[in-house]
Task: structure prediction
Amino acid sequence: MTLAARDVCWSAGGRMIVDGVTLRAEPGKILGLIGPNGSGKSSLLRLLCRLRKVASGVVTLDDREIGTLSRHHLARRLAFVEQQATTEIQLSVCDVVRLGRTPHRSALASWAAADEDAVEAALARVDMTDRHDQFWHTLSGGERQRVHIARALAQMPSELILDEPTNHLDIQHQLSILTLIRRLGITCIMALHDLNLASLFCDEIAVLHEGKLVDAGTPESVMTEALIQRVFGVAVAIRRAASGRRHIEYLIEPF
Result:
């Protein structure tokens, strides 16, 4: 089972935003999307989960074009966590997470113990159990993001798509959320800005620049000093940390 794009294009306002991208998420692995702002990462994620319709090319799930699949089927397979989500409705934290159970329930079905178990487990995994009854709009930006990740987990997807899941989070929660995602063991595609976090947590990296796929492969093969200089316009040195992991150091002039 896998999610893939082949020669996918999408434009807006007369400008090509996603330009002929081909990539494949390996089952059970994490594929990270990196690239400067405006490189097409968020747009590509929305094409992959059919929130936008491709202009050309094809997105497939298990080798079936996603346009031929029902919304209900997709919702039981794919969960999408946006970069930011807002609402003025007076919802509690548990109400938001319960929305993740919608694809698993018929219109007339009563709330079941299995649904409640899924919600409680999802809240526990993002360390938000103690906020169960708190109103969503009273949470900090980082806490809201964690609740929306919990909603996605309650959906029990086999493919998870995340747009900057660590936005607004402090470093402790960045690491805990990415560690959680890493341990899920499901197919995951996520956009990240932090190159070191992408290198640390992703099995493969796809680099986008001006809507085009520049390179894809393992972090070690793709995230080179030359590529980062070319795509991001910054000089870096890549070294081995004491832990043995690669660390990207940004080379800047002294202040």
Notes: The first strand starts at residue 3 and ends at 12. The chain is about 30% helix and 25% strand. The radius of gyration is 19 Å. The chain has one domain: 3-250.
